Amino acid sequence: MSQDDILVDARGHRCPVPTLRLRRALETAPDGAVVRLLADDPLARIDVPHFAAGAGFVVLEKAEADGVLSFRVGRAPTGG
């Protein structure tokens, strides 16, 4: 995790809470910020990439350890 990442810890919450918390953090984050989401809901494997693609964000990194999913999500680059 980068020192500048905004951390959203949604462990212990079930769908759709992790994605909703991620969305709120991304919407209020400054330009260029990256949000790290921690979630232990297995549905986050599907929900987070789907949300990101549909909302103009990109999953920069995805990992899993000890049943905890970790996503780094940022704004998709604009073409110009």
Strand content: 25-35%
Name the CATH homologous superfamily: TusA-like domain
Low-confidence stretches: none
Sequence of strands across the biggest β-sheet: 1-2-4-3
Question: Judging from the principal axes of the Cα atoms, what is the shape?
Answer: globular
Give, in order, the helices and strands.
EHEHEE
Oligomeric organization of the protein chains: single chain
- Range of helix content: 25-40%
Per CATH, the architecture is 2-Layer Sandwich
In CATH terms, what is the fold-level topology? Translation Initiation Factor IF3
Please sum up the structure shown:
The chain is of the alpha+beta class and 80 residues long. The chain has 2 helices and 4 strands.
Explain this structure to me?
- The structure is a single chain.
- This protein is an alpha+beta fold.
- The chain has a single domain, classed as Translation Initiation Factor IF3, CATH 3.30.110.
- Helices cover 30% and strands 34% of the residues.
- It is built from two helices and four strands.
- It has helices spanning 17-28, 44-55, and strands at 6-9, 34-39, 57-65, 68-75.
- Strands 1-2-4-3 form a four-stranded mixed β-sheet, with helices on one face.
- It comes from Phenylobacterium conjunctum.
- Residues 8-32 form the UPF0033 domain.
- Belongs to the sulfur carrier protein TusA family.
- This is Sulfurtransferase TusA family protein.
